[in-house]
Design a protein that fits this description.
- The protein has 669 residues and is of the alpha+beta class.
- The protein folds into 4 domains: 109 residues, Gnk2 domain, C-X8-C-X2-C motif (Killer Toxin P4, Chain A, 2-Layer Sandwich); 102 residues, Gnk2 domain, C-X8-C-X2-C motif (Killer Toxin P4, Chain A, 2-Layer Sandwich), CATH 3.30.430; 91 residues, Phosphorylase Kinase, domain 1; 233 residues, Transferase(Phosphotransferase) domain 1 (Transferase(Phosphotransferase), domain 1, Orthogonal Bundle), CATH 1.10.510.10.
- Helix content is 35%, strand content 17%.
- The protein has 16 helices and 23 strands.
- A 5-stranded antiparallel β-sheet has the order 1-4-5-3-2. Strands 6-9-10-8-7 form a 5-stranded antiparallel β-sheet. The protein has a 5-stranded antiparallel β-sheet with strand order 11-12-13-15-14, sandwiched between helices.
- A hairpin with a 4-residue loop joins strand 2 and strand 3.
- Helix 11 packs antiparallel against helix 13.
- The longest helix is centred in the middle third of the chain and has 43 residues.
- The radius of gyration is 30 Å and the shape is globular.
């Protein structure tokens, strides 16, 4: 009988035995944590894909008995790609049990989905109809955390971050044959309490991608697990975990393989004594010269190829870094247009939630019952593929309760669609500017909204691995969750800053008049202080219940910033507050919010506070100066505030002249 046929029959027999195991046994061998399997791509029962998937899972299970703790496989015809990763500290039998249980469990949780990933206490299993080997995927992700808080949370969180950073550096040094890209590290927190940390990448990642994945995972721990005794971030390409209790087994470090040059004399093989041989100088020269020349040639050839290899590595690293901003980093989030169309009732007007600067937003329901919000960019929108990709890549990397959660996207033909988590209370402007709904925003709700927006901005500006300027912060871009918790959304115009970059400039202005800082509206200069200015306008709107643009449309009403400033100077600051609040507000909280709001809208960016300093109540706030503002010239003042958009922008460290801005006429102060 043909050997390949024997192997196939043997694998098929194993597959049948494997798939017949009970769910009870699975539960005993695998501690399930989380799984993800989007139903955007499915297969039919008894199809070629299902047959190949079963073959793949059987192959992965059979290879789990090996000591590597990692294996990837491919089933041909209608191709299925899969891999498993066992934690680097567990023995082979535990790895085998976890993978076998995970394979049985995952096909039950995802019975007809082509793409799936699941995490368990001791392993991770993943498969797809798209090749994903050797690629860094930070999405989808999952998080778990302890219910117990830790004492001195700020100090503990800083220790977690520093220890994890050191561990990540050690993990990416794990190279060579059999390298697991795995490590653990301990640190003392108090005299009686220790910190235990673990980090691991899939071994097929490059060192650059492994480090990038770990850095994103470590940065996300603060958002999910800050102040907790333990937590973990689970990505398809890596995972990290910390706890105050030991949770991993001791791992023996591989000793470096000694070379002959460093072996002690007793380790060298004994030589049998032989008779002496006399060689003439001529013979020695004839023998030694070719050896010397060949060694020299080998040395220079090695140096040449190593130099080229080093240059190639640097080039590849740069290419990989540039590719990080490409849409393919979020491929696993892609929905097909038919699914979105069905979810929204073919974009029915009954499901329309509102109209934004770049298109309409609809509510919808996926086949699994999950409610979604769909942002469908209008075909006439000037937001191009660049901004669309920018929003996907940015939000996919963010994990913070005050930022909108991106579930996926659709890019088919001229359709560009973003799929977000559904927020039941729409956006802030829906309540804030409507006299009939303003009463639903009591003082505690408004104060919580201001605090949530500031924490979301702090994450973007300082706590995230990416330093991001939003550039279009306004009430309509603040979504409100079930408990009226704010979530910053719409990152189409956001700009990533370099590590040492403090300012950027653009030829064309994007955003909304009234919320723009003067230096941005006039000269195209933007920084984190531009967002601070927009936040200041938002604070004054939330306090007063008045829209910034309403002052442009009322003769002699002045400007909201001037209106607030005049009350401040007249000693009647609380008269600014929305009358619907009555006497239910906290005087001290309202006064501090107004004080911070006026400081945020100062003309000089250096006079505006940072988001971090706003959150610290121990800092004494300086006295504000008269605020700055910018709006179109007198001939345009009776027009509503205009939303500007752009299909291109540049980021430079030096400001451009006013003549290069897309606003061709500016007004003097």
């Amino acid at each position: 009988m043909d050997s390949n046929l024997c192997i196939t029959l043997l694998g098929f027999s194993f597959m049948i035995i494997f798939l017949s195991q009970t769910r009870t046994k699975v539960a005993a061998t695998s501690n399930y944590l989380h799984h993800y399997c989007p139903n955007t791509t499915t297969f039919t029962t008894n199809s070629t894909y299902q047959f190949n998937l079963n073959r793949l899972l059987a192959s992965l299970s059979s290879n789990a008995s090996r000591n590597e703790g990692f294996h990837k496989a491919t089933a041909s015809d209608e191709t299925v790609y899969g891999l498993f990763l066992c934690h680097g500290d567990i023995p082979a039998d535990s790895c085998r049990a976890c993978v076998a249980g995970a394979a049985r469990d995952l096909v039950e949780r995802c019975p007809e989905e082509k793409v799936a990933v699941a995490w368990y206490d001791e392993c991770m299993l993943r498969y797809s109809d798209q090749r994903f080997f050797s690629s860094m995927d930070p999405v989808p992700s999952a998080y778990t955390w302890s219910t117990q808080n830790v004492s001195e949370a700020n100090l503990f969180d800083e220790l977690v971050r520093a220890t994890m950073e050191e561990l990540a550096s050690e993990v990416i040094k794990d190279v060579g044959s059999g390298a697991k890209k795995f490590g653990t590290k301990e640190a003392n927190f108090t005299g009686s309490q220790k910190l235990y940390t673990l980090a691991q990448c899939t071994p097929d990642l490059s060192l650059h991608d492994c480090n990038r994945c770990l850095q994103i995972a470590i940065a996300s721990l603060q958002s999910c697990c800050g102040g907790k005794q333990g937590g973990r971030a689970l990505f398809p390409s890596c995972h990290v975990r910390f706890d105050v209790h030991p949770f991993y087994q001791a791992v023996k470090k591989r000793a470096p393989t000694p070379t002959a040059a460093f072996l002690p004399p007793s380790s060298l093989p004994a030589r049998k004594p032989k008779g002496k041989i006399q060689l003439s100088p001529l013979i020695i020269t004839v023998i030694v010269t070719p050896i010397f020349v060949s060694h020299a040639a080998l040395f220079f050839m090695g140096y040449y190829f190593l130099s080229r290899r080093s240059a190639r590595k640097k080039y590849n690293a740069m290419q990989e870094e540039n590719a990080a901003n490409h849409i393919t980093t979020a491929e696993s989030l892609q929905f097909d247009f038919a699914t979105i169309e069905a979810a929204t009732g073919k974009f029915s007007d009954d499901n329309k939630l509102g109209e934004g600067g770049f298109g309409a937003v609809y509510k919808g329901t996926l086949p699994n019952g999950q409610r979604i919000a769909v942002k469908r960019l209008s075909k006439s929108s000037r937001q191009g593929a660049g901004e669309f990709k920018n929003e996907i890549v940015l939000i996919a990397r963010f994990h913070h309760k005050n930022l909108a959660n991106l579930l996926g996207f659709c890019l088919e033909g001229q359709e560009k669609i973003l799929v977000y988590e559904f927020v039941p209370n729409k956006s802030l402007d829906y309540f804030l500017y409507d006299p009939k709904r303003q009463g639903q925003l009591d003082w505690s709700t408004r104060y919580r909204i201001i605090g949530g927006i500031s924490r979301g901005l702090l994450y973007l500006h300082e706590d995230s691995r990416l330093k991001v300027v939003h550039r279009d912060l306004k009430a309509s871009n603040i979504l409100l969750g079930e408990n009226m918790d704010p979530k910053i959304s719409d990152f189409g115009m956001a700009q990533i800053f370099g590590v040492d970059q403090t300012q950027g400039s653009t030829r064309r202005i994007v955003g909304t008049y009234g919320y723009m800082s003067p230096e941005y509206a006039k000269y195209g200069q933007f920084s984190v202080k531009s967002d601070v200015y927009s936040f200041g306008v938002l604070i004054l709107e939330i306090l007063s219940g008045k829209k910034i643009s309403s002052f442009y449309q009322s003769d002699g009403a002045g400007h909201l910033l001037n209106y607030a400033w005049n009350h401040w100077m007249a000693g009647t600051p609380l008269e600014l507050l929305d009358p619907t609040l009555g006497d239910s507000y906290s005087r001290s909280e309202a006064m501090r919010c107004l004080h911070v709001g006026l400081l945020c809208v100062q003309h000089d960016p250096a006079d505006r506070p940072t988001i971090g300093s706003m959150l610290s109540h121990s800092i004494t706030l300086p006295s504000p100066k008269q605020p700055a503002y910018f709006f179109p010239c007198r001939t345009e003042q009776k027009m509503p505030i205009k939303e500007l958009d752009s299909d291109q922008y540049t980021s430079k460290s030096t400001p451009r002249s006013v003549d290069e801005a897309s606003i061709t006429e500016v007004c003097p102060r």
